[in-house]
Each structure stands twice: as C-alpha cells, then as structure tokens.
Amino acid sequence: MLLLLLITTAAALRPPQARVATTKKLDVVVVGGGISGLATALELARRGRSVRVVSRDLAKSATLAAGGMLAPQAERLEEGPLLDLCVQAREAWPAWLDTLDAPRPTLNAVGGFVSPSLTAGSTIETWRPPSSAGPSEWLDGNALRAMEPSLGNVRGGWWYPLETWVDPVATHECLLRTCESAGVEIHTDQDVAGLDLARDGSCSALRLKDGSLLEAADYCVAAGAWLRGLLPIPVSPQKGQMLSLSPPPNGDRTGAPARVVYGEDCYIIPRDNNIVVGATVENSNTMHCDVEGVHALLGRAQKLCPGLGQWQLDDAWAGLRPTTTDGAPVLGRTRWSNLWVCGGYWRNGILLAPTAARLLADAMDSSLSDKDASLLDACRWDRFFAPVSSSSSRLREGHAGLTTGSPADLDRIGYGAITAGEADA
Q: Interhelix angle for 349-364 vs 35-46, to 10°?
C-alpha cells in the first residue's frame, strides 16, 4: 500500500510532457502572419513543401498599418547592398503580383512620386540619388507645381518615375487567400513560447505557450517587431502613426494630390477616395494614436499640400515597424542549420517581402546565384555579434563578398567556423 502511494505521488510530481501538436512532421513552420511570413510560406509551398504559418494575431501585423510604399528612391537609401536589394524587390513586384489569386490589388502610380523640398538645405535638396536605383530628375518649384498643382510653396524637388505603391490591406487579404489555395496551413491565436535549440546545431521544435510542440524539418522566424523574443537579434519596435483624410462636405477634391508626395518627414498617398498621411517615427511599442502625433502629421501634410486643410480627419492608427540597429534586414540561415530568419525590414516591409521570400527559398534549395548570395551575406544575422574566435568568418578578408565555393554554402560558412572555433574562444 505504501509502495503504491509512493508511485502515485511520484507520478503526480513528475513534470508534464510536452505534447506534439500534429501527428505529421511538416516541412516548414513559419512564425508570423504578416506579409513577410505569408510571402515566404507561399514561395516554399509552391516549391512542393508542406508549410504551416502560426500567428498570434493577424490584426497586429505591421503590414495592415503600412503605407504600402515600393519606393527605395524616395526613401533616400545610400548606395550599397540594401539599396540593391530594394531596387531588385521593386522590379520584381509586378510579376509577383500577377501570381496571386484574383481579385488581386494593383500597383498604383500616376507618373511616379514627387519628393518636394520646403526649405533651403533640406535633406531632399542636398540629396543626390544613386543612378543605380533608376531614373530621377530635379525639378524647380514651378515645374514641380505644374506636375502636381496641389503643392504649396516648394523650392523644387525630385521626380522618381518608377516609384509606386500597393494597398497593404488588400495585398494581405489576397496573399492569405493565395496561401490557402496553395495548401499553406494558417493557424491564428497561436502564441509561441520559444524554440527548442539542440546542441547538435539544429532546432528540434517550436514550443507554443499551451505546452504543445510543432515539429518540422525547417523553421522560419518572421515575427516582425517581436522577433527578438525568439532570437538574440537587435530588432526593436518603432512606432508609426498614420491618418486618413476624407474630402470636405462639399466634395471639393482640389486640395488633394494626384500622385504620392514624399516629403522630408511626411508622405501623402491618394488611396481610393481618401488621402493617407504618414508616418511618425517613434521609439515606442505602444499602439495608440496621440494628440502630438496626429497634430504633427496634419501640420506636415498641410505644409506640403495646403488645400488638405479643408479635408476631414477620417481615421487614425498606429503600427510597429521591426527595426534593426543598422536599418537593414536580417535574412537567411541562423547558426542552427534548419532555423531561418526573415525580418527587420523597417520601412520597407511591403517592398522586400516577395524578393526576400524568394532568396530564402533559394537558400533552402541550394540554388542561390552568386549575386543573391552576396545580398544574403550582407543581411546575415550574426553581423551584430563580435567574433568569438580568430577563425570566425567575420575576421576573414573579403567576408562581405565571399563567392568561392558553393553559393548555397555562403550563408553558413561563418556559423561552421564559429562552431569549430568555440573551444578556442
């Protein structure tokens, strides 16, 4: 009797075993239901993989709060790998959009974007757009107002004929439908607790907060502003408030621009019957709109297009941009052989998602071109870390442009060196 009591007590005290959430082992589990996660899941599913997306709350995705800009030139990106990646992404958008299920959103551009300067010596006025990003032309104030009569007293500005934008909400809805028709499993209300990382250099499972495990051959973290909750990557939420304006009661739309006006600290998007104004840049993780932010955006918009002063404030919202310390994305394999990451896209999430998804899938398939492998190398996750040994690839001459060996091995060269050198560290 005493022995039976001891056995029963021991069983009660034994910690509960995690339950496996699915009887089949998936090829890939993607964490994150924003455009980055969904675009990655779709690309992998189209290559024959079984994919499940897990997301805590689709409504909190930065995608739904975005402006939808496909505009590396208007962002005034310096020459370098990030600009190269963003230009490639802009050029890929039309063909990628055509692969989505109908009805699909359209690319919106009426003769490109204008980027006006209001003050002498502004960052727009002193900017010299890299020619590699595409055509651009400086117009004086009269010429710019002739192109866009809604502008106020502008000194001049850049015209970027190739820049465009897409409705992010319509794109997300269309991408969800396309993923489902491609066989992607999408599970919402799934709160991820962590990753089970093994000593053999692999990830063995995704652990949910209800105690269950998801097992897959590969795992991809596309968790947006919450990415660093799963991996030690310096991605922080950066708040952006936005507004929607509707026409005045008399229906007069003469104050509205016909094309995107991208100012020094504000952009104005004609979207359907309304005008969207964005966006503040705040080091905050709150999701509410405040008087200070709304007032600042209204003032900036009215300086660019004075006629908007007669329009009505229709709506206001905020989103959190996933932002790295150097402003560039984190993309590719981590030091765990089957754990991948795509995030930290800052203000370029809509722009980068389809191309980043293709690059990640190519890396998984060992089919990266040398050019694309170089872009991934510039976005590697360990660029924020100090080298742990003299054999680390971070110390090798020409690391950023490694093209020897198989391109598919580029994204793991550094991690193999780090693992091999741990005993020396």
A: 30
Q: For residues 296 and 152, give the distance between their C-alpha atoms in angstroms, rounded to a whole number.
A: 17
Beta bridge partners of residue 140, listed in sequence order: 156
Distance separating alpha carbons of residues 176 and 55, to the nearest angstrom:
12
Q: What is the dihedral of CA 379, 385, 388, 391, to 10 degrees?
A: 20
Q: Which residues of the chain have pLDDT under 50?
A: 1-18, 20, 22-23, 390-425
DSSP 73-119: TTTTPPSSHHHHHHHHHHHHHHHHHHTSPSS----B-SS-EEEEE-S
pLDDT per position as a tens digit, 82-129: 999 999 999 999 999 999 999 999 999 778 999 999 999 999 999 999
Residue closest to 215 by CA, chosen among 52, 332, 366, 362: 52
Contact 298, 201 (CB under 8 A): no
Residue 100 in tokens: 């989505």
Task: Respond yes or no on whether the N-terminal peptide bond of residue 103 is cis (omega within 30° of 0).
Answer: yes
Rounded to 10 degrees, what is the CA torsion of 372, 376, 378, 384? 180
CA 67 – CA 324 distance, rounded (Å):
19
147: Cα separation from own chain's centroid: 32
With tokens 């002063």, the residue in question is 309
Phi/psi zone of residue 36: left (φ > 0), alpha (ψ -120 to 50 degrees), beta? alpha
Cis amide prior to 363 (ω within 30 degrees): no
Task: Give the pair of three-digit tokens for residue 60.
Answer: 């909190």
Calpha distance 140→150 (Å, rounded): 15
> Using CA atoms, how far apart are residues 382 and 156, in angstroms rounded to an integer?
42
DSSP 134-174: ---EEEEHHHHHHH-TT--S--EEEEETT-EE--HHHHHHH
In the chain, the amino acid numbered 245 is: L
